[in-house]
Amino acid sequence: xxxxxxxxxxxxxxxxxxxxxxxxxxxxxxxxxxxxxxxxxxxxxxxxxxxxxxxxxxxxxxxxxxxxxxxxxxxxxxxxxxxxxxxxxxxxxxxxxxxxxxxxxxxxxxxxxxxxxxxxxxxxxxxxxxxxxxxxxxxxxxxxxxxxxxxxxxxxxxxxxxxxxxxxxxxxxxxxxxxxxxxxxxxxxxxxxxxxxxxxxxxxxxxxxxxxxxxxxxxxxxxxxxxxxxxxxxxxxxxxxxxxxxxxxxxxxxxxxxxxxxxxxxxxxxxxxxxxxxxxxxxxxxxxxxxxxxxxxxxxxxxxxxxxxxxxxxxxxxxxxxxxxxxxxx
Amino acid sequence: xxxxxxxxxxxxxxxxxxxxxxxxxxxxxxxxxxxxxxxxxxxxxxxxxxxxxxxxxxxxxxxxxxxxxxxxxxxxxxxxxxxxxxxxxxxxxxxxxxxxxxxxxxxxxxxxxxxxxxxxxxxxxxxxxxxxxxxxxxxxxxxxxxxxxxxxxxxxxxxxxxxxxxxxxxxxxxxxxxxxxxxxxxxxxxxxxxxxxxxxxxxxxxxxxxxxxxxxxxxxxxxxxxxxxxxxxxxxxxxxxxxxxxxxxxxxxxxxxxxxxxxxxxxxxxxxxxxxxxxxxxxxxxxxxxxxxxxxxxxxxxxxxxxxxxxxxxxxxxxxxxxxxxxxxxxxxxxxxxxxxxxxxxxxxxxxxxxxxxxxxxxxxxxxxxxxxxxxxxxxxxxxxxxxxxxxxxxxxxxxxxxxxxxxxxxxxxxxxxxxxxxxxxxxxxxxxxxxxxxxxxxxxxxxxxxxxxxxxxxxxxxxxxxxxxxxxxxxxxxxxxxxxxxxxxxxxxxxxxxxxxxxxxxxxxxxxxxxxxxxxxxxxxxxxxxxxxxxx
Lengths: 330, 537
What we know:
The structure holds two protein chains of two kinds. Chain A is mainly alpha-helical. Helix content of chain A is 60%, strand content 4%. Chain A contains 14 helices and two strands. Chain A has a two-stranded antiparallel sheet with strand order 1-2. In chain A, helix 1 crosses helix 11 and helix 9 runs antiparallel to helix 11 (252-267). The mean pLDDT of chain A is 95. Chain B is mostly helical. In chain B, the strands form two sheets. Chain B has a four-stranded parallel beta sheet. A three-stranded parallel beta sheet of chain B has the order 5-6-7, with helices on both faces.
């Protein structure tokens, strides 16, 4: 159910686009209305979610310290793992966001022969994660070509790099293949590692299927169906210049691709994909750990009922005097 | 309750297979030896906790207040608004599973609900149902579920199988810290009066008497005097510490566990001997006689109420700064919370070692320095005369406490000290120390006796790493800087790795410390003959 439901949801989306365009001629709906609505939902949704998080304060200094603290001058501080200045935090966050530093630490813990726990390095998830996110980013950047006229020169550079293998016509872009391979790995891993499968929700499979669909239709369009790129660009330029047009001759598969992408955009703010924004707001990573050096203010700090020394002495005065412990009142 | 009799070999038959049924459809099985008894009503009354009532974990009916569901939902809402950590961590988990085999309770039980990700999902599913559009509309498909009594029991059972050690948060790509989630869940159970005896009791004792063990002022003094007798026997030196003395330069605060039971008292003897040798102008307090904070395991507010005493007493006594003893969660609280709660401590001065002149700038706001920082500085400046050979009967390894490593980063100081007072020091495997250290298995108030199976299972990863160095190098002493460790690791060593003792670092320091005017020592602080002095008495 957790797998089938999102799988059929994606199939349904595919069929919806095909039938909508081929059968019902709803080109304008799928080519203009839905993408606009999706992008609008994405932008408003992401802003709303981030603001909502930001509204909750960070009352305490709760950095997870993963290295030596700042202490005596002759003990070397691990500035990136136990940051004591904003600069250190920026470094720590850069490692986290750009290189997935914490995931790189990953270990596999196993009980051998019912007697020994052993921990081996396990970087596959990190590798797949890096491959997936970076190839997705480059694929996304490559699509800028469809929204800019003339094509910016840095895109040529990017494409040269991405297609350096010089295979086929049109030239094979590595990132498309890596993206599909990585996302497939992430799906299979979720399916085959029993523990990961056990914790997985429909909400974990849905974006995977969506992205598999997006990458597949993208690859099909570029290498196999040879979609009318000029027509597509006419449509995308229309969208971005807010004067939408529906060109003739763009195949249904493009509309499938577009609907899946639109769904991903619209779904984004309501889903775990918000980890993209959330990682920046994670208090265990983005705070300095110098909480004895600088006082952190809790905006909702309030006075609490305490047991004062006077009350304490009142109760124990005689015993304290007997034990020759000094008291305030004789 | 039947006595816990399972042998280590039985506990090692851990089943890591996932159940056939989905976790939401697998009802909680509240199992003997895995949970703690409820708190006594009178203890909860002492501190004014809400909804105090009679209940037993194994019963079907927990006698919950009528509006319990509303209390929990409102409680979640309030905490989402107060803590960004909680709010963000409810939303951004992608369930990658990187945290799963990082948890000592998961490694020791194989229970999938002990995977940090699933532990958090237990609460996230409720959050989704009541606080997200997707959860409200799509229900179970969106990973949401109704809050029922069974769900509440499950939350209670599993959030008291987490020791807030934060090991998972080291490995999480978004830094999701289960400790934050467990704290919130425990606050929710506390709102319903579902507190543990082993937590409620110490909290009430600490509130009224100043320390978790409920030691009254004269008892604190007499306990320490007994240690002084032992010190005199061993060294020939009579020490005269002061209590509640106004005008002392330094207030010393340590967990009360150090005042009471073995092997904690040896650590305490270590402090006494060190301070005497230095001629330190310091005082003990019977009012602020607890460095630890079991309130931290009930609610943020209670933790603040208990913590209040430290600054209040420092102010009353007019000391310049505060020195803190060896304890794990105590230092998480002191390092990351105390100043925010009860500061600013502007009536104190930046800690400065009167012996070396070192100014502890890293504590310039909180004004509280860790004994390991203090001691390491003394050794570095050559202020201590040390005879390492007095620890030659010990082959030592060091256990980083969860909180001093992942909530502070005190990693090198204790190691530096140990290397200077012991000739034989061996590290455990690198994936089990420093920021990757494993919990003793009994932190956050879970160090009761009725939950011994849980404790031994949770303690397995740590014990297993000790076993490795015992077998490899003949290690016979597990050094640490935590009072809870000293109590709980002793039990888990006896169970998993017999023959390995447990000692505070300050005990090892005092063994090696050559004191002015001491007689020739023939035993260590425990009364064990020193190497080469066997049969001297």
